[in-house]
From TrEMBL:
Belongs to the NAD(P)-dependent epimerase/dehydratase family. Residues 4-172 form the NAD-dependent epimerase/dehydratase domain. InterPro entries: Epimerase_deHydtase, NAD(P)-bd_dom_sf. This is NAD(P)-dependent oxidoreductase. It comes from Microbacterium thalli. It comes from the Bacteria. The lineage of its organism: Bacteria, Bacillati, Actinomycetota, Actinomycetes, Micrococcales. Keywords: NAD, Oxidoreductase.
Length: 293
């Protein structure tokens, strides 16, 4: 049994991860700006991940960290606030964890770290599938903050030796919400073309976090994630032909295959997506399926 600090613990992913960890027999310290009364953590701290004092209090007796505290979208703050809060929180949490002897952290990066989904210019990635080597083109503060967070993970490992996995989440929601988003995107598929219509169910996202917490991989790894298919039920090759004709497509793409390369997820985490919103395999809210470890 381990004690895990979950920051942003009352957000969507943070709460789902907390519930799954507690169900697995671990102790959870929750750090969040607000925490609902029914949160499963046995230790709850109302605090700010950018505060050295709050994070120091939260870090007591912690074995590993799952860091989700952030402003999660560029529309939820000024560019200055989005960048400041996100980067300061990640720097603070990782450095404080390392200084107190924590050897493993997982942070929430984003598919936005490549910059294309929220880019105000008409720019596309040079090729699919998207992976950790996709060259970024960043013109918004949120995407910049996520790329900076990945650099902070490399810094923390190099400076202190803490091992960090940065999970590049795509759109992550419970299945009923993903289906609602799919209905909206189906009316205008171009709106998600630059991120390859990528998504991940909440249960698969939680499983990726748990695998990242227990992996023995050393260093600072950037791990792109996705379901095995796209959010839309149209063949992937047809979506690319219609909405990203100038982008180099994957060789031999067929069916509804995802446009995010999962090689790193497989090799570093042993992660394979299990769920799709299209075939009845997705776990509905609030049930969770934990990874077999």
């Amino acid at each position: 049994m381990s004690r895990i600090l979950v920051t942003g613990a009352d957000g969507e992913i943070g709460r789902a991860v907390s519930e799954s960890l507690v169900a697995a027999g671990h102790r959870v310290t929750a750090l969040s700006l607000a925490i609902a009364a029914d949160h499963p953590a046995d230790r709850r701290i109302i605090g700010d991940a950018t505060s050295r004092d709050d994070v120091a209090e939260a870090m007591r007796e912690v074995d590993a960290v799952a860091h989700f505290a952030a402003i999660p979208h560029p529309s939820l703050g000024t560019p200055y606030d989005v960048f400041r809060v996100n980067t300061a929180a990640t720097f603070n949490v990782l450095t404080r964890a390392a200084e107190t002897g924590v050897r493993r952290a997982v942070i929430a990066s984003s598919i936005n770290a490549i910059g294309y989904p929220n880019n105000p210019h008409d720019t596309f990635p040079p090729s699919f599938p998207l992976d950790a080597a996709t060259p970024p083109d960043i013109a918004d503060a949120y995407s910049l903050s996520k790329l900076a967070d990945e650099a902070t993970a490399r810094y923390a490992h190099r400076r202190y030796g803490i091992d960090v996995v940065a999970l590049r989440f795509p759109l992550v929601k419970w299945p009923h919400v993903l289906r609602e988003v799919a209905d909206e995107v189906r009316a205008d598929p171009a709106r998600m073309a630059r991120e390859g219509w990528a998504y991940l169910t909440m249960t698969d996202a939680v499983r990726a976090v748990e695998l990242a917490l227990w992996t023995d991989a050393a260093g600072a790894a950037v791990v792109p994630l996705s379901a095995r298919d796209t959010l839309l039920d149209e063949p992937t090759a047809e979506l690319l032909r219609r909405f990203a004709p100038a982008v180099e497509p994957p060789i031999g793409v067929e069916g509804h295959h995802a446009l995010v390369d999962l090689t790193t997820a497989r090799t570093v985490l042993g992660f394979e997506p299990r769920e799709s919103i299209h075939d009845g395999t997705a776990t509905p809210y609030p049930a969770l399926v934990r990874s077999d470890r």
